[in-house]
Design brief:
Its main location: membrane. It is built from 33 helices and 15 strands. With 1072 residues, it is of the alpha/beta class. The strands form three sheets. It has a ten-stranded mixed sheet, sandwiched between helices. The protein has a three-stranded antiparallel sheet with strand order 2-1-5, with no helix packed on it. The protein has a two-stranded antiparallel ribbon with strand order 3-4.
């Protein structure tokens, strides 16, 4: 829907701003500097003219008083006039493209020169000139059309998807890699970018091999270094020549690229002209065959095609001076030139005939070339219409001058060999930084280029099948026409037009590959997503990628050492197909997710077309070569996992992230439908961390223990509470979050960090317990460290907060794990030797005590530890039967553990227990007295403060309109009265303190703690870890401090202890 803008000019009634506003300007600058320093989340800001732009000239946009109402927002929100002015120069460049973009001239290239012609040059190439005739002859016209149709459909669908991506916003220099990485994220972007790089590099190998094949086979065959003395050695000799000359050609091209890329770019039009002239010569030759077919006879022996290198006449004998003499052909099949010499049996039984290699467009040969002629390696190229008398030993045929298949042929092989001839559709998008209007030029130019080349390929398939004899089509190297290029025999005015044109075309394409591939690698390296590639981001002073060029040449040499064009073509087909697959995937994902930023100007796309293109690419990969497809996918998968595990974190607003969000939302909604079944229950941890004054983590071993317990499974939320208000503690909270995340990364704890700022510690912890998590992904277990310094602390809030946390987890039906001496717990690098994890099962807690050791032993730190379970038998219990029952219970739980029943008899309460309880209660009473004295001193200080402030006037208070004061209800008289009462009761309180008797309930609790501690220390003092039921806090809050004493006595003398309190549900089951 079009949007109309009306620009209204507002007069400044006050004229220009006066010069007396220097103070205000300075204040604004100070504020501006502060906001620039506070970068927030540490993520570099996007270069955007819209908001949060801190350009130095921004203040000038707000001169005058018309917009004074908005001056408070001047540092974040620009005026519309400023916005529109900056939009004209807006660029949002990738890291790595910045340097190139800064030194680049103003883009002036249009659709024709910038996209259409480069795509034509890259698509039309070596396969058209060297292999298309052979593919038509081998596969037949119908299957050749199927091959061309499949491959061209694949590239057309990919071009449609690419056009949608390219028109969805500004496309900086970087082309296809930029589009894929920014649409699918750094992991997919890096994997596909490297696959695209490998494809382009192997394409360079293919073009160089094509250049050398044309040179040695059709231009100067005598330049071959390795010459086969026997016919069966010809293939090996050709491959060795390709390796030697190919390596020399690669070195020469690499030097040309290193010396100056500008010369390569200037020669691009020359190479393109060679391609176009060659294609025009083919069409001219086809038209000429209607009136005057060229004379290229093919010599046939019976129905077999002969190599026409070593004889001039297609005759067995000829008459010279009325004398019958043998010909050069006779000498190839017979043991001597004599007429009575012993000859090959097949040669004796069959006649020699000549057939026209190019019968012409009106000859009707098209009907014979409709069907395929696949065959194994060494199969003879035969014309089934001609008569043939079998004879001779077929094993000797390989030594005879017949034209044979040099490789085993089948449909899927030809698909892999042909597909590189339709690659090159990214040439336009790779030049996106040089285009005047990339969003308009890329779709039009690319689609027109594909349509043009598809027409050329389809017409060539039909015309080759209609003009050329089948045996000549299947003659890959033109051996039957004296080593001429087969497609050259059809061209007009001379075969040399095609030979020279294809030679320069392959040279140019090879140079373009060696130019483009290093730049692609440099862009990937500068993005920083693959750490070990960063060295390839550097180059010469002018930005040329020297190191990337060396690596490209090295990989290209691998392809040249393979030496066979037919073997290299399927390799680069895999990498290009994978690249096209992910382009289609990117478009389909963005469309299906309806991403808000997905608004491409190119409207002729649909997710179904992208999905069809993606499926077609995947099918073509496995059709071409299933093992190459698996290798290519494995390479991409390894790169993906490497970037995910070690690579730099990037946030590019990619579609995969949107897909993850959608999947997470769907999963969360499903999870909230019902609580997890007991079989699926696992501890989802909320880890409560303590930080020091510098916001550093106090107990990093707590995170180590979390990692060992979770092993990356389930949910982990690491929480912390800062006291204060969020407005004043904003910077500290972000610093704390960064420190926690760094510690989590160091301890390999996979999870989320949640820092809460609250007015007091107690409320903050309560908020975390209540609200951490989302939907069904909420924690069910709280892990915290034991407050080891609670006795030494002057502030009782430390242990009171701990006890309140215990109460709240119980109220929320969440399990609680408390680690004592957590700093002595093993790190992730430790490997505990032979030892035990001892479980003291005093009361049933839903099975947490059984489950936790099992989970710990899954980690390599605790793997060698054995599990022992102790349970306590009372006076009336049958300890023998208890042990049997417990062993049976563990058997059904599928847990391996030693079982021991410890008997605790009802002994008399010892004097030690009685005395310890008395000391505990006296200490508690003394602390209460000290607390009351402290409260009294605070009230007296408040009274003095109120008396001093009462003498001040209230004028300023009214002007400030601040919050109302809180008036104390204490007066001087009340204070003195309260003090006299305290003094009167002081002596009485002290006498009561020393005459008090311990509470019998506390005595019994202390007795249990002392006796149980004795038993645990006796049995488990040498254990690597002791798990123990955690008693609940008293319902009466007055006994909170006594509760801490009980726990302290219970844990005394033990090193590593994990107190466990169940969440009120069964977490382990005997059922499958």
């Amino acid at each position: 829907m079009p949007t109309n803008f009306t620009v209204v000019r507002v007069k400044d009634s006050a004229g220009k701003a006066t010069e007396g506003n220097d103070e205000d300007v300075d204040e604004n600058n100070v504020l501006k500097e502060e906001e620039e320093d506070a970068t927030g989340d540490g993520v570099p800001k996007e270069n955007s003219p819209f908001i949060n732009n801190t350009d130095n000239d921004k203040a000038n946009s707000y001169d005058g008083t018309n917009m004074a109402l908005f001056e408070e927002e001047m540092d974040s929100n620009p005026m519309v006039s400023s916005l529109l002015n900056k939009l004209a120069n807006y660029t949002n460049l990738t890291q790595g493209a910045q340097e190139h973009e800064e030194c680049r001239m103003v883009p002036q290239m249009g659709t024709f020169m910038g996209v259409y012609l480069p795509c034509l040059q890259n698509i039309l190439g070596v396969i058209l000139f060297l292999r298309l005739t052979w593919i038509v002859g081998t596969a037949g016209i119908l299957e050749s059309l199927a091959i061309v149709g499949l491959c061209c459909s694949c590239t057309m669908l990919t071009a449609i998807s690419m056009s949608a991506i390219a028109t969805n916003g500004v496309v900086p220099a970087g082309g296809s890699y930029y589009m894929i990485s920014r649409s699918l994220g750094p992991e997919f972007g890096g994997a596909v970018g490297l696959c695209f790089y490998l494809g382009t590099t192997f394409a360079g190998s293919m073009y160089i091999l094509g250049t050398i094949e044309i040179l040695l086979t059709y231009i100067v065959p005598k330049a071959a270094i390795f010459v086969a003395e026997r016919k069966e050695d010809e293939v090996d000799a050709l491959l060795n020549n390709m390796r030697v000359y190919g390596t020399c050609c690669l070195a020469l091209m690499a030097i040309v690229v290193f010396v100056g890329v500008k010369y390569v770019n200037k020669l691009a039009l020359v190479f393109l002209a060679c391609v176009i002239l060659s294609i025009l010569a083919i069409y001219a030759g086809v038209i000429k065959t209607i009136f005057e077919p060229p004379d290229f006879p093919v010599c046939m022996l019976g129905n077999r095609t002969l190599q026409n290198h070593n004889f001039d006449k297609c005759l067995k004998t000829e008459i010279k001076d009325n004398i019958t003499v043998t010909t050069q052909l006779w000498n190839l099949f017979c043991e001597g030139p004599e007429l009575n010499a012993t000859c090959n049996e097949y040669f004796d039984n069959n006649n020699v005939t000549e057939v026209q290699g190019i019968p012409g467009l009106t000859s009707g040969v098209i009907s014979e070339n409709m069907w395929p002629e696949y065959g194994p390696l060494g199969m003879l190229v035969e014309n089934k219409k001609l008569a043939s008398v079998p004879g001779g030993d077929p094993k000797q045929d390989i030594y005879m001058p017949y034209v044979v298949n040099d490789i085993t042929t089948f449909f899927t092989l030809l698909v892999g060999i042909y597909f590189p001839s339709v690659t090159g559709i990214m040439a336009g998008s790779n030049r996106s930084g040089d285009l005047r209007d990339a969003q308009k030029s890329i779709p039009i130019g690319t689609i027109l280029a594909i349509a043009t080349t598809s027409f050329i390929y389809i017409s060539c398939v039909v015309l080759f099948g209609a003009c050329i004899e089948g045996v000549l089509l299947r003659d890959k190297f033109g051996d039957s026409v004296k080593g001429n290029l087969v497609i050259g025999t059809l061209s007009w005015p001379s075969p040399w037009v095609i030979v020279i044109g294809s030679f320069f075309s392959c040279c140019g394409a090879g140079l373009q590959s060696l130019t483009g591939a290093p730049r692609l690698l440099q862009a990937i390296a500068r993005d920083g997503i693959v750490p070990f590639l960063q060295v390839f981001g550097h180059g010469k002073a002018n930005g040329e990628p020297t190191w990337a060029l060396l690596l490209t040449a090295g990989i290209c040499e691998i392809g040249i050492l393979i030496a066979s064009l037919d073997a290299v073509a399927p390799i680069l087909s895999m990498f290009f197909l994978m690249c096209y697959l992910f382009v289609n995937l990117a478009c389909a994902v963005q469309t299906l997710l309806r991403t808000p930023n997905w608004r491409p100007r190119f409207k002729y796309y649909h997710w179904a077309l992208s999905f069809l293109g993606m499926s077609l690419c995947l099918a073509l990969m496995f059709i071409s070569s299933w093992y190459y497809a698996i290798v290519a996918m494995a390479i991409a998968g390894c790169i993906y996992k490497y970037i995910e595990y070690r690579g730099a974190e990037k946030e590019w607003g990619d579609g995969i992230r949107g897909l993850s969000l959608n999947a997470a939302r769907y999963a969360l909604i499903r999870l909230e439908d019902a609580p997890p079944h007991t079989k699926n229950w696992r501890p989802q941890l909320l880890v409560l961390l303590n930080l020091d004054s510098d916001q550093g983590v106090k107990h990093p071993r707590l995170l180590s223990f979390t990692t060992q317990l979770k092993a990356g499974k389930g949910l982990t939320i690491v929480g912390n509470v800062l006291e204060g208000t969020y407005l004043t503690k904003d910077t500290e909270s972000k610093k704390a979050e960064q420190n926690i995340k760094a510690c989590m990364s160091a301890e390999r704890t996979k999870g989320f960090c949640h820092v809460v700022v609250s007015s007091n510690l107690r409320d903050g912890v309560s908020h975390l317990i209540q609200s951490a998590g989302l939907g069904g992904m909420k924690h069910n277990t709280v892990l915290m460290a034991w407050p080891g310094t609670w006795k030494q602390s002057n502030d009782p809030q430390s242990w009171k907060s701990f006890i309140e946390t215990v109460r709240e987890t119980t109220s929320a039906h969440q399990a609680l794990l408390v680690a004592k001496n957590v700093d002595s717990f093993p790190t992730n690098q430790d490997r505990l030797g032979e030892g035990t994890i001892d479980v003291w099962w005093v009361v049933h807690d839903g099975g947490m005590l059984m489950l936790l050791p099992f989970l710990l032993r899954q980690h390599k730190v605790w793997r060698k530890c054995k599990m022992r379970i102790f349970t306590v038998a009372q006076m009336d219990d049958n300890s023998i039967q208890m042990k049997k029952d417990l062993q049976m219970f563990l058997y059904h739980l599928r847990l391996d553990a030693e079982v021991e029943v410890v008997e605790m008899h009802d002994n008399d309460i010892s004097a030690f227990t009685y005395e310890k309880t008395l000391v505990m209660e006296q200490r508690s009473q003394m602390l209460k007295q000290m607390q009351l004295s402290r409260t009294e001193r605070e009230r007296e200080a408040q009274l003095i403060h109120d008396r001093n402030t009462a003498s001040h006037t209230t004028i300023n208070d009214k002007a400030d309109a601040g919050p109302e004061r809180v008036h104390m209800t204490w007066t001087k008289d009340k204070l003195f009265t309260e003090r006299r009462n305290r003094e009167c009761n002081a002596n009485v309180a002290v006498r009561d303190l020393f005459n008090m008797k311990p509470n019998q309930s506390n005595v019994r609790r202390m007795h249990t703690a002392v006796k149980l501690n004795e038993v645990v220390v006796n049995k488990s003092q040498g254990a690597h870890l002791v798990l123990l039921n955690m008693p609940g806090p008293p319902k009466n809050r007055g006994g909170d401090e006594n509760y801490m004493e009980f726990l302290e006595v219970l844990l005394e003398g033990l090193n590593r202890v994990l107190l466990v309190r169940g969440g009120g549900r069964e977490v382990i089951t005997i059922y499958s």
